[in-house]
Write a structure and sequence with these properties.
The structure holds two protein chains of two kinds. Chain A is built from no helices and eleven strands. By secondary structure, chain A is an all-beta fold. Chain B is an all-beta fold. Chain B is built from no helices and eleven strands. In chain B, strands 2, 4, 5, 6, 9, 10 and 11 form a seven-stranded mixed beta sheet that branches. The chains are: A mainly beta, B mainly beta.
């Protein structure tokens, strides 16, 4: 049962345009969300996070939006640059039964074309 | 400041064997977490250690175990290897105890192949 879903395995955009990466979750226990990006042959790198008490968090070109009622979050990259080409993972954090859980989506491969 | 290092980078083992992977966190970081990445299941959390204590554990069988030493270095052990254990094993470190919801710094991973 996939609790965190990134339904688009890949996304291709033109340099300078907006990239929108989507993520859906099913479990209401999740109350904190993170985005990581991963280049080939490297470990993931933290990008941005958002608490469930907010609906938007911005850091430079990166903005994450959270729609709790829809159990949906999205990462916007504006403007997109070729160096943003990587795999992006959405992750959801929550506690259940006294145990902390961190669940990742399977990732979306973003390609930014010059 | 040196990043997270993992050794070895590549490993080939036979079914039934056991394996130990090592992770050295960023200097000053006391939290180490381990993850398994496979094409089918994606990135999955294994366990989290802080100051030599396991704080959280993912949904993996008991064949997967770990420990953390007083210098914060961590090892992960997998016993009785199965073909399905072939994966990229990633280690991440953090400066805080609640690492799962904090910024974690990942190493490059150890690629384990079980034949």
């Amino acid at each position: 049962d996939q609790q965190v879903k990134q339904n688009s395995p890949s996304l291709s955009v033109q340099e300078g345009r907006i990239s929108i990466l989507n993520c859906d979750y099913t479990n209401s226990m999740f109350d904190y969300f993170l985005w990581y990006k991963k280049y080939p042959a490297e470990g993931p790198t933290f990008l941005i996070s958002i608490s469930s008490i907010k609906d938007k968090n911005e850091d430079g070109r990166f903005t994450v939006f959270l729609n709790k009622s829809a159990k949906h979050l999205s990462l916007h990259i504006v403007p997109s640059q070729p160096g943003d080409s990587a795999v992006y993972f959405c992750a959801a954090y929550g506690t259940q039964g006294g145990s902390e859980k961190l669940v990742f989506g399977k990732g979306t491969k973003l390609t930014v074309n010059p | 400041k040196a990043g997270v290092t993992q050794t070895p980078r590549y490993l080939i083992k036979t079914r039934g064997q056991q394996v130990t992977l090592s992770c050295s966190p960023i200097s000053g970081h006391r939290s180490v977490s381990w993850y398994q990445q496979t094409p089918g299941q994606g990135l999955q959390f294994l366990f989290e250690y802080f100051s030599e204590t396991q704080r959280n554990k993912g949904n993996f069988p008991g064949r997967f175990s770990g420990r953390q030493f007083s210098n914060s270095r961590s090892e992960m052990n997998v016993s009785t290897l199965e073909l399905g254990d072939s994966a990229l094993y990633l280690c991440a470190s953090s400066s805080v105890a609640g690492a799962l919801m904090a910024e974690q710094y990942f190493g490059p991973g150890t690629r384990l192949t079980v034949t």
